[in-house]
Amino acid sequence: MTSGTTKILLLLTLTTLLLQRVQGGEQFPLIKALNNSDVFYKQITRDIDHYYIDKEKREKIPGLLIYRYKTKKDDSIFTVAASLNISYEAIVTLNELDRPDNFPVGKIILLPNLPGIFVNENPRTDLEFLIASWRKKPEKAQEITITYPRKTNFFFLPGEKFHKVELSFFLGVMFRFPLPKGTITSYFGPRMQPFTGKKEFHEGIDIAAPEGTPILASRGGNVEKEGKDSICGNYILLIHESGYETKYCHLKKIFVSLHQTVRSGMIIGEVGTTGMSTGPHLHFEIRERGKARDPMLMLPIK
Length: 302
Fold this sequence. Notes:
alpha+beta; Glucose Permease (Domain IIA); 2 domains; three-stranded mixed beta sheet; 18 strands
């Protein structure tokens, strides 16, 4: 048997083994090092390179395969993606990561051999809910079931990258809408103050909703203040990472206490009409290092 024939048989055997492992969803080939000394690293980077070449030529792209890799101390989502020449969106969505700082160090992650976005059909994180909210399943979707570390059903969108809103959310510069539903009645910027009739700068947005509507923490953080004043009525001030704050005013009820840690989406109060309010609504502010920011630029609103 010639050396060329041996290589072909070895490649066919390897490909068959990989396909079986992907279909089984429990065991994937382990990449031990992100360099050419590792046979599986060479295989995955070859596929990724072929993807870009084949896409440019409008030819059939390689089949989807999954590998494992145990992350090292100095690894990050960006360095791992760069070493493979693959978009980090593919690694992020396959591993259900919602922030760069949630990258698991010293643990097994899954690496795909194609760039794209894996849409979780049963989303768990805020980022997954956001992705699933506007990425619809194609008629001939490429589906994959992962049973490691838990059973998860995805459909794969080859070559897709994060929308700017998804990217903002992943990078931690974005917040979730603070109500299950509501109508924005007053925007950030100059306006006529409804009680005095004088021009003022509105440092947040007003969201009208029925009294008693649950108010959600727009991002995980800690309760810096909670109390009552003549203008805001019952209010909550949350502090977040990277110098951000969110403020929630005119509440009917407050469900959190001072210095309490809250997660994104946690119910922290109810919509009310306390303070200077013309009707049931939430006045919502976002500040970055003390400076008021336009919430419309940072909320997942189409």
